[in-house]
Amino acid sequence: MTSPEIASLSWGQMKVKGSNTTYKDCKVWPGGSRTWDWRETGTEVPSSTVEYLKKHGIDVQVLQTEQAVKEYNALVAQGVRVGGVFHSTC
Hints:
about 90 residues; alpha+beta; Hypothetical Protein Mth938, Chain: A; 3-stranded antiparallel sheet; 6 strands; about 25% helix
């Protein structure tokens, strides 16, 4: 499975290729995407989460949304299986 490209990003709206949904905030992973309610976890990434992922050999980048989408899509274009959590109003 490949990771879906983020087709567009604007304030409060995100489109993911392969999905008919317009997201405000979303989670994407190889093979899918879904709405993400930032109130589930907040918008800050806890250092314990970053440490856990890195301990398991997963590269982690915490970036401002526009930069994160650019980096995510660049990795997708290279065929890298990548996931992300995006908040379109930050």
